UniProtKB/TrEMBL annotation:
InterPro entries: Beta_CA_cladeB (IPR045066), Carbonic_anhydrase (IPR001765), Carbonic_anhydrase_CS (IPR015892), Carbonic_anhydrase_sf (IPR036874). Binds 1 zinc ion per subunit. Keywords: Lyase, Metal-binding, Zinc. One of its GO terms (molecular function) is zinc ion binding. This is Carbonic anhydrase. PROSITE patterns: PROK_CO2_ANHYDRASE_1, PROK_CO2_ANHYDRASE_2. SUPFAM superfamilies: beta-carbonic anhydrase, cab. Its cofactor is Zn(2+). Reversible hydration of carbon dioxide. It is an enzyme of class 4 (lyase). One of its GO terms (biological process) is carbon utilization. Its EC number is 4.2.1.1.
Length: 232
Protein backbone atom coordinates (compact mmCIF):
# COMPACT_ATOMS: atom_id res chain seq x y z
CA UNK A 1 0.00 0.00 0.00
CA UNK A 2 2.87 2.39 0.74
CA UNK A 3 4.13 1.86 -2.80
CA UNK A 4 0.71 2.79 -4.21
CA UNK A 5 0.52 5.87 -2.01
CA UNK A 6 3.91 6.90 -3.34
CA UNK A 7 2.45 6.86 -6.82
CA UNK A 8 -0.41 9.08 -5.66
CA UNK A 9 2.11 11.64 -4.47
CA UNK A 10 3.96 11.29 -7.77
CA UNK A 11 0.71 12.02 -9.63
CA UNK A 12 0.18 15.20 -7.64
CA UNK A 13 3.73 16.48 -8.01
CA UNK A 14 4.81 15.22 -11.44
CA UNK A 15 1.98 13.89 -13.61
CA UNK A 16 -0.78 16.41 -12.96
CA UNK A 17 1.35 19.53 -13.51
CA UNK A 18 2.27 18.27 -16.99
CA UNK A 19 -1.36 17.51 -17.86
CA UNK A 20 -3.13 20.26 -15.93
CA UNK A 21 -4.51 21.85 -19.11
CA UNK A 22 -6.26 18.60 -20.06
CA UNK A 23 -7.68 18.09 -16.57
CA UNK A 24 -8.87 21.69 -16.41
CA UNK A 25 -10.62 21.31 -19.76
CA UNK A 26 -12.33 18.11 -18.61
CA UNK A 27 -13.35 19.72 -15.33
CA UNK A 28 -14.74 22.80 -17.06
CA UNK A 29 -16.42 21.26 -20.09
CA UNK A 30 -17.27 17.73 -18.93
CA UNK A 31 -16.49 14.42 -20.55
CA UNK A 32 -17.16 13.03 -24.03
CA UNK A 33 -15.64 9.54 -23.99
CA UNK A 34 -15.20 7.80 -27.31
CA UNK A 35 -16.34 4.37 -26.09
CA UNK A 36 -17.71 2.38 -23.17
CA UNK A 37 -15.56 -0.59 -22.21
CA UNK A 38 -16.96 -3.35 -20.01
CA UNK A 39 -14.03 -5.41 -18.80
CA UNK A 40 -12.98 -7.73 -16.02
CA UNK A 41 -11.92 -6.48 -12.60
CA UNK A 42 -8.75 -8.59 -12.89
CA UNK A 43 -5.81 -6.42 -11.86
CA UNK A 44 -3.80 -7.53 -14.88
CA UNK A 45 -6.31 -6.04 -17.33
CA UNK A 46 -6.26 -2.25 -17.38
CA UNK A 47 -8.50 -0.90 -20.17
CA UNK A 48 -6.89 2.53 -20.26
CA UNK A 49 -3.44 0.96 -20.52
CA UNK A 50 -4.48 -1.47 -23.28
CA UNK A 51 -6.01 1.32 -25.35
CA UNK A 52 -3.37 3.88 -24.38
CA UNK A 53 -6.28 6.13 -23.45
CA UNK A 54 -5.90 9.61 -22.03
CA UNK A 55 -8.23 10.96 -19.33
CA UNK A 56 -11.64 11.55 -20.88
CA UNK A 57 -11.18 9.02 -23.71
CA UNK A 58 -12.80 5.95 -22.20
CA UNK A 59 -15.82 5.25 -19.99
CA UNK A 60 -15.08 2.05 -18.08
CA UNK A 61 -17.16 -0.51 -16.19
CA UNK A 62 -15.22 -3.36 -14.54
CA UNK A 63 -16.57 -6.42 -12.76
CA UNK A 64 -15.77 -10.08 -12.19
CA UNK A 65 -15.99 -11.83 -15.56
CA UNK A 66 -16.82 -8.75 -17.69
CA UNK A 67 -20.49 -9.59 -17.27
CA UNK A 68 -23.51 -7.65 -18.53
CA UNK A 69 -26.67 -8.91 -16.82
CA UNK A 70 -29.72 -8.98 -19.09
CA UNK A 71 -31.89 -5.91 -18.63
CA UNK A 72 -34.32 -6.22 -15.74
CA UNK A 73 -36.51 -3.97 -13.65
CA UNK A 74 -34.13 -4.14 -10.67
CA UNK A 75 -31.31 -1.63 -10.56
CA UNK A 76 -27.69 -2.64 -10.98
CA UNK A 77 -24.31 -0.99 -11.42
CA UNK A 78 -23.67 -2.34 -14.90
CA UNK A 79 -27.17 -1.48 -16.11
CA UNK A 80 -26.90 2.06 -14.77
CA UNK A 81 -23.46 2.54 -16.31
CA UNK A 82 -24.64 1.36 -19.73
CA UNK A 83 -27.73 3.55 -19.61
CA UNK A 84 -25.77 6.65 -18.58
CA UNK A 85 -23.05 6.06 -21.17
CA UNK A 86 -25.55 5.76 -23.99
CA UNK A 87 -28.24 8.27 -23.02
CA UNK A 88 -26.17 11.00 -21.37
CA UNK A 89 -22.64 10.68 -22.74
CA UNK A 90 -23.73 9.53 -26.19
CA UNK A 91 -21.12 6.83 -26.67
CA UNK A 92 -21.28 5.20 -30.09
CA UNK A 93 -19.12 2.15 -29.43
CA UNK A 94 -19.43 -0.41 -26.63
CA UNK A 95 -16.71 -3.00 -26.02
CA UNK A 96 -17.11 -6.16 -23.95
CA UNK A 97 -13.58 -7.32 -23.18
CA UNK A 98 -12.65 -10.75 -21.82
CA UNK A 99 -9.17 -12.10 -21.21
CA UNK A 100 -6.99 -15.15 -20.75
CA UNK A 101 -6.61 -16.86 -17.36
CA UNK A 102 -9.82 -15.26 -16.07
CA UNK A 103 -10.66 -16.51 -12.58
CA UNK A 104 -14.41 -16.18 -13.10
CA UNK A 105 -14.29 -18.18 -16.32
CA UNK A 106 -12.00 -20.74 -14.69
CA UNK A 107 -14.64 -21.34 -12.02
CA UNK A 108 -17.18 -22.08 -14.75
CA UNK A 109 -14.92 -24.20 -16.94
CA UNK A 110 -13.90 -26.40 -13.98
CA UNK A 111 -17.34 -26.47 -12.32
CA UNK A 112 -15.75 -25.12 -9.14
CA UNK A 113 -17.59 -25.43 -5.84
CA UNK A 114 -18.76 -21.89 -5.03
CA UNK A 115 -20.92 -22.80 -2.02
CA UNK A 116 -18.85 -20.56 0.25
CA UNK A 117 -19.16 -17.64 -2.17
CA UNK A 118 -22.92 -17.39 -2.84
CA UNK A 119 -22.71 -13.89 -4.30
CA UNK A 120 -20.05 -14.95 -6.78
CA UNK A 121 -22.13 -18.00 -7.71
CA UNK A 122 -25.21 -15.84 -8.27
CA UNK A 123 -23.24 -13.36 -10.38
CA UNK A 124 -21.77 -16.09 -12.58
CA UNK A 125 -25.25 -17.36 -13.45
CA UNK A 126 -25.19 -14.60 -16.06
CA UNK A 127 -22.52 -16.68 -17.82
CA UNK A 128 -24.33 -20.01 -17.72
CA UNK A 129 -25.29 -19.70 -21.39
CA UNK A 130 -21.60 -19.62 -22.32
CA UNK A 131 -20.96 -22.52 -19.96
CA UNK A 132 -23.64 -24.64 -21.68
CA UNK A 133 -22.36 -23.74 -25.14
CA UNK A 134 -18.92 -24.99 -24.15
CA UNK A 135 -20.21 -28.07 -22.36
CA UNK A 136 -22.47 -29.27 -25.17
CA UNK A 137 -20.65 -28.15 -28.32
CA UNK A 138 -16.91 -28.55 -27.76
CA UNK A 139 -14.93 -31.82 -27.55
CA UNK A 140 -14.55 -33.40 -24.12
CA UNK A 141 -10.85 -34.14 -24.54
CA UNK A 142 -9.65 -30.53 -24.68
CA UNK A 143 -6.95 -29.40 -22.29
CA UNK A 144 -7.86 -27.26 -19.30
CA UNK A 145 -6.23 -24.26 -20.99
CA UNK A 146 -8.30 -24.77 -24.15
CA UNK A 147 -11.51 -25.14 -22.14
CA UNK A 148 -10.76 -21.93 -20.26
CA UNK A 149 -10.03 -20.02 -23.46
CA UNK A 150 -13.24 -21.24 -25.09
CA UNK A 151 -15.22 -20.27 -22.00
CA UNK A 152 -13.83 -16.73 -22.01
CA UNK A 153 -14.54 -16.31 -25.73
CA UNK A 154 -18.07 -17.68 -25.53
CA UNK A 155 -18.71 -15.51 -22.49
CA UNK A 156 -17.94 -12.39 -24.52
CA UNK A 157 -20.50 -13.53 -27.09
CA UNK A 158 -23.09 -14.19 -24.37
CA UNK A 159 -22.59 -10.80 -22.73
CA UNK A 160 -22.93 -8.99 -26.06
CA UNK A 161 -26.30 -10.73 -26.46
CA UNK A 162 -27.30 -9.54 -22.97
CA UNK A 163 -26.23 -6.02 -23.86
CA UNK A 164 -28.74 -5.91 -26.69
CA UNK A 165 -31.60 -6.48 -24.20
CA UNK A 166 -30.95 -3.05 -22.66
CA UNK A 167 -33.53 -0.62 -24.12
CA UNK A 168 -31.10 2.27 -24.58
CA UNK A 169 -28.66 0.03 -26.45
CA UNK A 170 -31.36 -1.64 -28.57
CA UNK A 171 -32.74 1.74 -29.60
CA UNK A 172 -29.29 3.10 -30.41
CA UNK A 173 -28.49 0.04 -32.52
CA UNK A 174 -31.78 0.45 -34.41
CA UNK A 175 -30.91 4.06 -35.23
CA UNK A 176 -27.46 3.02 -36.42
CA UNK A 177 -25.77 5.04 -33.68
CA UNK A 178 -24.20 2.22 -31.65
CA UNK A 179 -21.71 -0.47 -32.66
CA UNK A 180 -20.81 -3.44 -30.46
CA UNK A 181 -17.35 -4.94 -30.10
CA UNK A 182 -16.23 -8.19 -28.49
CA UNK A 183 -12.56 -8.34 -27.49
CA UNK A 184 -10.31 -10.92 -25.87
CA UNK A 185 -6.93 -10.00 -24.36
CA UNK A 186 -4.25 -12.69 -24.39
CA UNK A 187 -2.14 -11.59 -21.44
CA UNK A 188 0.83 -13.83 -22.25
CA UNK A 189 1.04 -12.83 -25.91
CA UNK A 190 0.02 -9.19 -25.45
CA UNK A 191 -2.47 -9.69 -28.26
CA UNK A 192 -6.03 -8.42 -28.71
CA UNK A 193 -8.57 -10.51 -30.57
CA UNK A 194 -11.81 -9.07 -31.93
CA UNK A 195 -15.10 -10.81 -32.71
CA UNK A 196 -16.23 -10.71 -36.32
CA UNK A 197 -20.02 -10.71 -36.21
CA UNK A 198 -20.34 -12.14 -39.73
CA UNK A 199 -18.08 -15.16 -39.26
CA UNK A 200 -18.58 -15.60 -35.51
CA UNK A 201 -14.82 -15.98 -35.08
CA UNK A 202 -12.23 -13.99 -33.16
CA UNK A 203 -9.19 -12.70 -35.04
CA UNK A 204 -6.25 -10.46 -34.09
CA UNK A 205 -6.60 -6.70 -34.34
CA UNK A 206 -3.97 -5.62 -36.86
CA UNK A 207 -2.88 -2.14 -37.87
CA UNK A 208 -3.75 -1.39 -41.47
CA UNK A 209 -6.34 -4.18 -41.68
CA UNK A 210 -10.14 -3.99 -41.29
CA UNK A 211 -11.10 -4.28 -37.64
CA UNK A 212 -13.34 -7.22 -36.76
CA UNK A 213 -16.60 -5.83 -35.37
CA UNK A 214 -19.32 -7.81 -33.61
CA UNK A 215 -22.09 -5.47 -34.77
CA UNK A 216 -21.11 -2.45 -36.90
CA UNK A 217 -22.97 0.83 -37.06
CA UNK A 218 -26.00 0.53 -39.33
CA UNK A 219 -29.66 1.46 -39.21
CA UNK A 220 -31.75 -1.58 -38.26
CA UNK A 221 -35.49 -0.91 -38.35
CA UNK A 222 -37.14 -4.08 -39.57
CA UNK A 223 -40.49 -2.39 -40.20
CA UNK A 224 -39.05 0.00 -42.78
CA UNK A 225 -38.83 -2.74 -45.42
CA UNK A 226 -42.45 -3.68 -44.79
CA UNK A 227 -43.56 -0.06 -45.23
CA UNK A 228 -41.56 0.26 -48.42
CA UNK A 229 -43.08 -2.89 -49.91
CA UNK A 230 -46.59 -1.77 -48.98
CA UNK A 231 -46.09 1.57 -50.72
CA UNK A 232 -45.10 -0.03 -54.01
Amino acid sequence: MNELLGRVFSFETKVFPNESALYNQLASHGQSPKALMISCADSRIVPEHIMQAAPGDLFVCRNAGNIVPPHATQNGGVTSTVEYAVMVLGVRDIIVCGHSDCGAMKALSTNADLAKMPNVAAWLRHSHAAQMVCRENYPDDLSDAEKLRNMALENVVAQLAHLRTHPSVASGIARGEIALHGWYVDIHAGQILGLDGETGHFSPLREGQPMPIALPHGRRLTGESTIAQAAE
